[in-house]
Amino acid sequence: MAHATNDLVATDIGAYLAAHENKSMLRFITCGSVDDGKSTLIGRLLYDSKLVFSDQLAALESDSKKVGTQGGELDFALLVDGLAAEREQGITIDVAYRFFSTERRKFIVADTPGHEQYTRNMVTGASNADLAVILIDARKGVLTQTCRHSYLVSLLGIRHVVLAVNKLDLVGYAKEAFDAVEADYRQFAAGIGLTDIVCIPMSALAGDNITSASPNTPWYTGPTLVGHLETVEIADDLESGPFRLPVQWVNRPNLDFRGFSGQIAGGVVRPGDRVRVLPSGQESTVSRIVTADGDLPEAGAGQSVTLTLTDEIDVSRGDVLATATDPPEVADQFECHLVWMAEEPMLPGRPYLLKLGTRTVGATVTQPKYKVNVNTLEHLAARSLELNEIGVVNISLDRPVPFDPYTANRDMGGFILIDRFTHATVAAGLLHFALRRAHNVHWQAVEVDKQARAVSKGQRPAAVWFTGLSGAGKSTIANLVEKRLHEQGFHTYLLDGDNVRHGLNKDLGFTEADRVENIRRVAEVAKLMVDAGLIVLTSFISPFRAERRLARDLFDDDEFVEVFVDTPLDVAESRDRKGLYAKARRGELSNFTGIGSPYEPPVTPDLRLDASGAVTAEVSAELVIAHLRQAGVLTPPPVS
């Protein structure tokens, strides 16, 4: 089966290389539960493809004796499991990519982990796959992780599935065992929309039905695994779809050339085609398709090219060039599937970054509509999403983006969420559709704007955000500041943490999710009050940096002042008139900041107040007013 056996290698290496270059490529993944034999299968494929060099084979023989699980015989899994922890535990942890080829096709295979805690790695491996090989141990049948991976395969748009009923040698190659597993799996798969399934009985370790029909299964008349992988037809839906090119780079090597570079995500483009730039909506005509090897008469999905246009129009990284007759939608609110991949839970209302194609924007996730029990496919109520959980949520962006539903185009409908501070990927998402309200809700033009209101009050509106531990003295200082400003004729309003929970936020508790929503609502109210021309003082613990960043981002650069009332925990606890710290110490209050829940102090606040007791509240209030005066908040705004 290996290309190394081809006669052309010996007689005409040039012709062989040309034939090899023009072979089609199939990307597939192996997945399933722990110890179902995924790594062994890939190792066997590499071995039978003659793609194991002599030194690798020698190392495999040595490693098989030292750390192998086959009693000194070749342990093919060791060709794939490269991490020390993988070899020690006999499991796959990271995604391992391997290349092999046959006379008819080239392959890239991703070996994905079976353990539940590494489900996020499986999502990574499946994101670009055309086919999934789902392994099942013939002795164990369909397991929880089999269902989980199958659901993810369906969700990620992989329609071709090989059900590899492995380790059949351990059940005596019994047809009854194979039939039972096949029946159980097909029943589950039908419920998640997987219908293109080829079931193959095999032993990856012994090589049964991998490259040639096994005499041990005379009752099986279907294809071998390699035979099916070589011949399965993968429809190129992207090539036949509408043209899409997310712009990755504006190419300006000199004054006489301006092109737009990126990888085509769908369709075909030719010089003379009319294209639209999104989200701006401007149109132009393709002049040239430029590559390192010269201009092309046309280019299709998967090719990386540079397009030049006949008109000088504004195009930037993150924009999408699309066919003018069938452009993608543009929206800023969506329903989507979300696969949560972080140890920290998804908190509704918390700001994240969303990367869709080459564009990165701010995003906020609302409370999940539901999460999915992948074993029963039941929809369950949820307040947040934990590690490896899958849910359907609404998501709101800070600006419109062009998109296609994930089912129509993976590149235009698949995204990741990124933590704004650590820049770690926390979730993978699949866009379903734009929310109707995104089309129906628009900004209403008003005659009296923020500037006019500020001029009438003789002040520059701003939000003064007091943060610190409970008992730090935030409310005391904020009250004194408002009193002084009121005496001086300024227009103010104080939003206090306890007061808003009597009305606006009376439905919220003190879980992390509720605290995030508490601050989100207060920040939105403060924004409206600043728009009204007021100086708004807010006194909230606001323990998480992410939510304070969300609040700051709602305002113009000179409108937000973060005041950190810095008090050591023991000092704050000694001022505890309400007895809250004592209750928290006794375990009667859960999620109390400083005891059961963390406080993340500001890294670079606009003003830090020492509230340990060395400075009085009155002096602290004067320091705040002095800062506001120096920042220009207390001076009349210019009349436009």
Structure description:
The strands form 5 sheets. This protein has a 7-stranded antiparallel beta sheet with strand order 7-15-11-12-14-9-8, with no helix packed on it. Strands 2-3-1-4-5-6 form a 6-stranded mixed beta sheet, sandwiched between helices. The N and C termini lie far apart (79 Å). The longest helix is centred in the C-terminal third of the chain and has 20 residues, at 512-531. It has 4 domains: 3-231, Rossmann fold (3-Layer(aba) Sandwich), CATH 3.40.50.300; 238-323, Elongation Factor Tu (Ef-tu), domain 3, CATH 2.40.30; 330-436, Beta Barrel (Elongation Factor Tu (Ef-tu), domain 3); 450-630, 3-Layer(aba) Sandwich (Rossmann fold). Helix 14 packs across helix 20 and helix 16 (512-531) packs parallel to helix 17. Mean pLDDT is 84; it is low at 1-5 and 81-94. It is of the alpha/beta class.
